[in-house]
Amino acid sequence: MPTMQVQHYMKLSVVVALVTIALKTAAWHWTGSVSLLSDAMESLVNLAGALFGLGMVSIAHRPPDEDHPFGHHKAEYFSSAFEGALILVAAVGIAWTAIERFHRPQPLQQLDLGMALSVGSTVLNGLLARAMLKASREHRSIALEADARHLFTDVWTSVGVVIGLLGVRFTGWTWLDPLLALLVAINILREGGHLMWRSTGGLMDQALATEDQEAINQVLTRFTSPDLRFDHVATRMAGQRRYVDLHLHVPASWSLGRAAQLRGEVEQALMFALPGLRASIQLLPVNVETRFEELEGTPSEAAPAPP
Q1: 52 contacts: CB under 8 Å, gap ≥ 6
Q2: DSSP 3-state of 238
Q3: pTM over the 0.85 mark
Q4: Residue 281 sits in a domain of what CATH number?
């Protein structure tokens, strides 16, 4: 069900992007406003990002196969990175157009109609963005979050454009139009950089959020005793999946069955605290330590040669 809901929102994003492109393009056509043109260009980016995101979400939910035994969950990060890159390209295009308009100012026409169309598209984007952001938190989907945050950027862009056009209407200062377009470019440039940074963190196996790690620690604390301890706890995210790897040390006198039963209880408690968590627990005697150290230097420097 979560997979279907994520795909549903991505498909809805495509439809809304097509509608807003039509509205904003018509607004630019009738007014000649370069800030409305920049707004329409950002909606084109919304459409491209939503289409790519839909494809990546579908790939992310494919089951594991021979070539990808751990699944395809990280595909969502490619969607976020792609959308961030599109935003950066759109920002450059908007800035270029705005600079040209500074050198060649043009009078604006039919501002009332243009602003009405822009407001209508803004309301659509705002409603969808709010619903998508809520769903992204429920399903831990970075693809949904990326699209939602981009839509929110589009909403604030449109609000700024309308305010600027009101200023042009009441003051006659046509230079406000390209100035506002430049501010739009700077704003979406910031958002694009944020999305690409988030995607990089996911592809680099970023640790779980602080609150998730605290939930894991609370579970492990409940099971810790003088005879039982945990160490080498490592967490990571892969799209909607959350993982934790750790070592469970039990008395050497315990039978394998007893140790395995305890491990199962710990796994169940962890998954109850964080639904959907994948836990990998290695059993070790209490007097056995492991080391994960990367040896540096040449082999001869790292360890003596065998006789």
Answers
A1: 79, 82, 83
A2: strand
A3: no
A4: 3.30.70.1350
